[in-house]
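Recall the central idea of this unit: under ordinary conditions, the amino acid sequence of a chain determines the structure it adopts. In this exercise we apply that idea directly, starting from the sequence alone.
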Amino acid sequence: MKRVAILGPSTFSEEATRHFLGEDFTYVSYKLISEVFNATSSGETDLGVIPIENTLEGSVHLHVDWLVHEVDLPIRAEWVFPIDMNLIGFASTEGQMDDSNPFGYIRKVLSHHVVPAQCSRFMKQYLSGAEFEQVSSTAEGVRIVSSLQDPSVAAIGTAIASTNYGVPMLRKEIQDHKDNMTRFLLVGKEASELKASKDMKTTILVTLPEDYPGALHQVLSAFAWRRINLSKIESKPTKKKLGTYYFYIDIAGSLDSVLLPSAIQEIEAIGCQVRILGCYPSYSYTN
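Accordingly, the structure predicted from this sequence is:
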């Protein structure tokens, strides 16, 4: 069985990965995303799962930086999975509860750093007096709450973490929008056999030549006149020199097509550096 590194256990990454890959893989949990990358890069695991983008927060920039700057791991697949945030903790039994704020007794909330942006409305209404403390994963927050057994400390995390650590869910689905989705990447040095998909994506990095006015316009034109759809484009600093950037581009299409390779050749012809991060199947969410 191939070994898959995930952020976990009992995290959204584990829920999403088990839903997508099933039980034909051995899942290895790590507390930090850096450990997921390093385990896959070193060969300790065959594949790694990386949360890369969320409906509400956008790109997870730390994870993009790891993919670009720290490791050389081709993208092998992507899929989208719904994320339901839950307030998890022990209810207070002391005194009369305030009906306008039933969670006023909570003084500290533990979770992953991406969570507040996804639950801002609920936290503003019910947890404005609570301190937010960042931990390595949503599941780690629930584990700490389980060990403390203190009603004043709660976590925001998964239903599976609530069950596994024996901590009640105080309020289900507290995210700002019910269609909150996260996009996950499967990365690894070797390809893996996956179910068929009608959609393909290619992700590239384009670094512009410093002394070429209008280079970005020409890059975009190379795709535009061929009617190649760019599903995402982001500029990020190269970290080599102030004022220099690369463009992280997701393309709806495959390198096996006729048009995409010729577009890349046109971009390289004007002096741009192009790095291909992966050409891979893309999967939408299905129950």
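The longest helix spans residues 138-148.
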